[in-house]
Specification:
40% of the residues lie in helices and 21% in strands. The protein is α+β, with helices and mostly antiparallel strands. The chain has one domain (4-116): Alpha-Beta Complex (Sufe protein. Chain: A). A hairpin with a 6-residue loop joins strand 1 and strand 2 (36-44). Helix 1 packs across helix 2 (59-72) and helix 4 (85-91) packs across helix 5. The mean pLDDT is 94.
Length: 121
């Protein structure tokens, strides 16, 4: 049912927690299933220097939150803005059709957090 990569991200989540001095954050809930993903980031000089997530939900939601943080940590904003939901799915190996919503949740949280980031003057 779940790929070895997805299970690894679920059992050993990367970057779990909250960034204490975050300057970009978002919390998204999927009303259909109740999954919640909170993403916090510290962005400096147009680069994501720290990123963490908290998730309440299914195995796939936790794994996709972990995979997303692994994808974007240390990357320039120009690079991460080109990421797609399929990039998250690729990192977790695959998603069963019933769990595809988890990749949408991760990308929606990421897009929302980026939208709330304001470059310091």
């Amino acid at each position: 049912m779940y790929s070895p990569q997805l299970l690894d991200h679920f059992q050993n989540p990367r970057n779990a927690g909250e960034v204490p001095d975050a300057n970009a954050s978002a919390q998204i809930e999927n009303p259909a299933c109740g999954d919640i993903l909170k993403l916090t980031m510290k962005i400096e000089d147009s680069r994501i220097v720290d990123v963490r997530f908290l998730a309440k939900g299914c195995v796939a939601a936790i794994a996709c939150g972990s995979a997303l943080t692994s994808l974007v940590r240390g990357k320039h904003l120009d690079e991460v803005r080109r990421l797609t939901r399929e990039d998250v799915v690729q990192i977790v190996g695959s998603l069963p059709q019933a769990s595809v919503h988890a990749s949408h949740l991760a990308m929606d949280a990421f897009a929302s957090a980026l939208g709330k980031f304001r470059t310091p003057i």
